[in-house]
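Input/output pair, single chain:
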Amino acid sequence: MALDLIAARLSRLELFRGLSSDQLRHVARDAERMVFRDGQKIIASGEQGDGAVIVISGRAMLMPDSELGIEAADVETGSMLGEAAMLADHTFRLTVCAVGDVRAVKLTRQTMHACMLDDPDLAQHLHARLANRLQRMAVELRLIDERLAIAGQLELMESPAA
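Output:
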């Protein structure tokens, strides 16, 4: 797989957006190249992950999980699977399988930690992106909480008095 293709896929991911081409190439250079054959699991529910997998080309399928209420769905080329495993201990909760041949790269936790030690700006960038994502999620959760509270109050007002 060409280094530039991997770097280009990384640049489209929200987490890596805004990095310089040199930083992207550094991460891409250290990525583990992988090929999955039809039906092979790319990530498997319950397995301990040691890195994130980015689908470079080919088709993948998110497998249904009735316990989690997950239905089967296509996984787009360029998607990152198991992002959390790239930065910390993580157990995968979903299974994704290859549909036909899939070319992918894996960014292991060990590789990412080494890249961040080599380039403190990369570490700062990832920290800022993740912090921003958590802040957005906190705002969204607050909005949901407020809507639920309002709905609960309306329900109380509309119910007949006992």
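The CA atoms of residues 54 and 80 lie 4 Å apart. The chain has four helices and eight strands.
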